[in-house]
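In the lab's daily routine, each protein ends up as an entry in a very long ledger. A line of letters takes care of the sequence, but it says nothing directly about the fold. The fold becomes a row of whole numbers, each drawn from a learned catalogue of backbone shapes. The protein below has been through that process, and both of its lines are reproduced in full:
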Amino acid sequence: MLRLRRPLQRSRDHVRGAGDGPGAIEVVGYQDFLCPYCRRLREVFARLRRALGDRLVYAFRHFPNEGVHPGATLVSRAAEAAACQGRFWEMHDRLFDREPPFSREDLSILARDIGLDIERFERDLDADDVAGRVQDDIDDGRRHGVTGTPTLFVDDVRYDGAWDFYSMLEGLERPVAARMQRSARVFASLPTSAGLVLLIAAVLAIVCANTPVAPIYDAVMNAHIGVGPRGSTLWMPVREWLSEGLLAFFFLLVGVEIRREMTVGALADRGAAILPAVAALGGVIAPALLYVAFNRGPMASGWSIPTATDIAFTLGILAVLGARVPTGLRVFVAALAVVDDVLSVLTLAIFYPQEFRPVFLFAVAGAVLALFLLNRARVYAIWPYAGASIALWVSLHAAGIHAALAGVVVAMCLPTRPPPTVGPLLAQAASALAELEHRENEARRDGREDWRPEREPVWDWAARNLSAASARLLSPADRVERAVAPWSAFVILPLFAFSATGVPIAVRLVSHGSWHIFAGVVVGLVIGKPLGVLAASGLAVASRLAVPPDGVTLRHFVGAACLCGVGDTMALLMADRALPATDAAVAKIAVLVGSALAGLLGAAILHRRDVASTPSNGFATGER
């Protein structure tokens, strides 16, 4: 978790520093008295206090790791027993000054040294309220995603930077660049941030298309740019570059997610995968049938528009609802969205190819074969895959198939690695850092004031070993996902939404047959999608083909099914592929309206609270 839900509390936390100067900085640290890294960090904090003075406020919270450091819990209780007599920080300093291990007798000696009442200290050491205080900090840390020590939060935001003095000083003082980076991380960590940016981009596009700036907007979106001779295959309008070019990165993430869910996620187990898979299929068939009921003839080709679910918006709404939504429901919706993405990709490839040129399929096959061979050869460098991916994208575009689908193929071919053995990596990193520390201590003993580690040959050796150990923690697929995910959420999808949703509302809605398209899409999203999900899921559960998620009531399931009617960028893309420009504009407006209605309906249903009762099989009948 990036943000600290329980901020520093002077009435409860152990706090050092007045914090009454201008620009006060609050740091909350989850630490273990026996953790060697916490002991090292104490020296850094001593320097930070000297540099920042009263501006620095530090709160200590217990997170003893008994499994790694036996006796850590007893030591934490000793510090709390000292706090009962107002001497926490004196005991804190003595514990960090002395090398472990600590016996009970050692702790009593330290207590006597700082002037504590020994009899009271011994009683408090075994008191339930002292043990409970330590356990409260441990539970609080786990709620905040703390898994190791030290874990620091600076002004309620987790600090993930380096632990050396200068890195921490920069992180605490927060120059302009650091403040911008921190604000961006906080915003990106919000569950609704990606959906909010997407919504803003769509609204901005509609505003541009319906105001005096519309000619400029259309000119930019329709401007032709490309590679090679003008008029060649790779000369396209900006709108198509955003659709086929940038969107390939989004499909790359979709492919990585599908692959992960099929191997270690919700789709790995056959029994667990059946319900979201069946529900997703029903969520495609029902809205498509309702759309066709409103639209016959050429306009029926838009049947796929109300079938796609937006995972960013849907999971964002579920996150905002918080504890009202059980964990099992979130997992179900996420798995359903993955299957929904698979069906959308297949729909786009099979039903909406552009001008088809089969001769280029040989080039497509060659690029796919190259990716496959790279994977089989366990090539872990990124650049060979990048070259084959570009060749695949160009070949698909030339063949008349939506080139963004290259992202899915590439994702399936990116190599994975088994998790590394931690011991050798720890030895490699520790050896590099220990050698640097040895050289630094040696220079300090010799009085060499001008010594700089980066000038030593050992610096390059240590940097290479640390980089190698760090890189081994992630497979190429993991590295690609981490690199592309923020760009996809906050740049690629918003740009595509900005290019796809800019339609003149008033003019398009009065065109011939537009209301049939509008009604078909809206009814498909708001009514067809939840009906399809519920009907297919009910049949699967009734036939014992699948079981519902634990702790999920019927109301929960109905609310989630309604949220699945929130359409995504794939719906906008299908509108462009399935319908003429005028009718596609109407369909896009309908996607926005239907998504808003589906989102509001689903959130309203899930927001209610009642008493739950769970039958022996099927969905729970009460509400929670």
